[in-house]
Design a protein that fits this description.
Helix 9 runs parallel beside helix 10 and helix 11 packs parallel to helix 13. A hairpin with a 4-residue loop joins strand 2 and strand 3. Helices cover about 30% and strands about 20% of the residues. The chain is an alpha+beta fold and about 650 residues long. The strands form 5 sheets. The protein has a 7-stranded parallel beta sheet with strand order 6-7-5-9-10-11-12, with helices on both faces.
């Protein structure tokens, strides 16, 4: 019996036990609507001699054209939108018969429902505060947390050649007439449309009169905010670079690109979210803020995240407000492993996790203040107190508020070192933190963002060479159950299931299930004994022989016949560190498969702590391994 067969049976058995205690979120989708992707026409591209990203864009465009011809043969089916650079289309009025026919078509790579995405329903609001007098000096009052925002302003470099970083706020819209945005010149402008002819698509991007952005709900250039949320998020982004409540407000260092895909109830479709992401990337955004999510995995949205990464765009994603471990209750797009995605949890003033914030030592990267955050809301929501729209603001709480602060700080880091890749900017942000024992086990970094440290690290890397690793998504299956934290009761983060699928393993029979339960019991006993016998280790000697870097990579760990998934915290030529709920003993021998490292590595646990943090020494450091690790850490600064 193969080791992976045993592993699959074990995780299946434990998963069934666990799932009986968990309520799964339903996969809510727009009735009759789907997103379909056609297989890239790679042979035509090879013949043309094109290669790389431009070649793939051509291959996908050819796929879209072929797909359009295929879809035209289906009666009643409508094409609502096209994502030609991805070879995808948004289709509607799809009957059950047509759906099955499309699934069977050899030219179709995948077809999935148009899932509903939404704002987190549990985010909280505090009392409205309007008419507060502005200070005569620059101060940062949007949160009481010690994020050193104002201190970072003092060291930021503002050369004459500096340009404003564009941050796309994909949300409920933005009140662009609010004094904070209008007077600070903080709203994105499409100059081709500004200087063009009304009613004409002057820049040929498919959107008419998109002077400041686009409304994907109404398909119009009016990005009004009918839910407060997007305007509040935008104020936090701009506030990372200046005192937005000073009167008069100063010129902004950031431009907001408002892209509305959520309606007044905070609900929108995956197709609209993808539309907005492609618009953001294609029209110059360098950072995208996504303060929304859902429980359904979408390969199409995953591809949109990859498109952003391939085009060097940082994405900041809210972790969600269910107060849950993401390993137990899956939330997307926060859990996408795209190397430019920063998943953000919410902290309180004393650097504790806010009770409503989701968390995960694998999927959440960093924390930021998200409790009682003061920011802008649409002027229509304010009374006439002092008749000053500048003070039209409200306090809100949620990971929706934590994410845009990180987005704003990332935008300012790009302003300091614009040549760095999105991957490197993520590393800069994840390195610029204040660690907190209260956040141990809740994120990969166990830290809360510090703006001053981020700016200092960005400035230190001005002369670094731009570099980013290649990225090939590990797509999940449509019927994927919520993932579990490493060592948890359910099936890891989906990698064990993926391996089993690749090996074409079938589901266990009833008799095999009984064996699986017995095998699971036998496998857990030695782990429990190891936990009881392990000694507290607080020193890390072996890893310090090499420079360590903050690098989050998915790691498959094999102990005998058991396979566990985790995420690296630091990576060095000689080893790595990771967090896991699974317990390990010093001296324990393991095998590792690290994402983007194309060889299996043997290792030994050289230190461990009671905080579920472990160090691994590589036992077979080949020249090939050394070269690959150096490639993954190129352009980063040691931790």
């Amino acid at each position: 019996m193969s080791s992976f067969t045993k592993v699959r049976w074990l995780y299946t058995a434990l998963g069934l036990i666990f799932l009986s205690q968990v309520v799964h979120a339903q996969n809510v989708a727009v009735s009759g609507e789907y997103i379909i992707k056609f297989k890239p026409q790679l042979s035509s591209v090879r013949l043309s001699g094109k290669a790389g990203l431009s070649g793939m864009a051509v291959a996908n465009k050819l796929a879209s054209e072929k797909g359009a011809r295929i879809l035209s043969a289906f009666k009643g089916l409508s094409v609502q939108g096209k994502f030609e650079k991805a070879g995808m289309m948004h289709i509607s009025d799809v009957s059950a018969t047509n759906l099955e026919a499309l699934k069977a078509n050899p030219e179709v790579e995948f077809i999935e429902p148009n899932y509903i995405l939404s704002l987190e329903p549990e985010y909280t609001e505090a009392s409205t505060a309007m008419g507060v007098a502005a200070s005569s000096t620059d101060t940062y009052t949007q949160t009481i947390s010690w994020v050193q925002i104002a201190e970072s302003w003092a060291i930021q470099q503002l050369p004459a050649s500096a340009t404003k970083t564009i941050v796309a706020v994909i949300d409920t819209g933005v009140d662009i007439q609010h004094a904070v945005f209008a007077d600070a010149n903080a709203v994105y402008k499409n100059l081709a449309e500004v200087n063009g002819i009304t009613g004409v698509d002057d820049d040929g991007n498919g959107y008419v009169d998109d002077i400041n952005g686009w409304n994907f709900v109404d398909n119009s250039p009016n990005m009004y905010d009918d839910a407060d949320h997007g305007t509040h998020v935008a104020g936090i982004v701009v506030g990372a670079g200046q005192d937005i409540f000073q009167n008069p407000v100063r010129e902004s260092k950031i431009r907001i690109m408002p892209l509305k895909f959520l309606n007044g109830e905070g609900s929108g479709s995956t197709a609209s979210a993808i539309d907005a992401m492609y618009y953001a990337v294609n029209n110059g955004a360098k950072v995208i803020n996504n303060s929304w999510g859902g429980g359904s995995y979408s390969r199409a949205l995953h591809d949109a995240y990859k498109f952003a990464y391939d085009n060097d765009v940082v994405i900041v994603t809210a972790a969600g407000n269910s107060g849950m471990n993401l390993g137990v209750q899956a939330t997307y797009p926060a859990m996408f492993d795209t190397p430019s995605n920063i998943a953000v949890g919410a902290s309180k003033g004393e650097d504790r996790r806010a009770p409503f914030s989701n968390y995960s030592s694998t999927y959440v990267h960093i924390f930021a203040p998200g409790d009682l955050i003061d920011s802008t809301i649409p002027g229509s929501q304010c009374s006439d107190i002092n008749n000053l729209s500048l003070y039209c603001k409200k306090r809100m709480s949620g990971t929706s508020m934590a994410a845009p602060l990180v987005a704003g700080i990332a935008a300012l880091a790009i302003r300091e070192a614009p040549h760095l890749s999105a991957y490197q900017i993520r590393g800069v942000v994840m390195s610029g933190i204040d660690t907190s024992s209260y956040l141990n086990g809740y994120s990969q970094t166990a830290g809360r963002v510090n703006a001053l440290k981020v700016m200092q690290i960005a400035q230190a890397q001005i002369s670094s060479t731009a570099w980013a690793p290649s990225y090939s998504p590990v797509y999940k299956t449509e019927d994927r159950a919520p993932a579990a934290e490493p060592g948890g009761a359910a099936g890891g983060c989906g990698l064990v299931k993926a391996i089993a699928n690749e090996l074409n393993q079938g589901p266990p029979s009833g008799g095999q299930m009984g064996q699986a339960l017995m095998f699971g019991f036998m496998m857990l006993m030695p782990l429990a004994m190891a936990f009881g016998l392990r000694r507290k280790q607080t020193k890390n000697v072996s890893l310090r022989q090499y420079e360590r870097y903050s690098v989050a990579k998915e790691v498959m760990i094999q102990i005998g016949d058991q396979v566990i998934s985790a995420a690296s915290q630091t990576l060095a030529v000689g080893g790595l560190s990771f967090k896991s709920e699974q317990q390990f003993a010093k001296g324990q021998k393991i095998k590792l498969k690290i994402s983007d490292v194309h060889e299996e590595v043997e290792g030994e646990i050289v230190w461990s702590t009671e905080l579920n943090s472990f160090g691994v020494k590589f036992l077979n450091v080949t020249e090939n391994l050394k070269s690959q690790v150096q490639g993954l850490t190129q352009g980063l600064i040691p931790t």
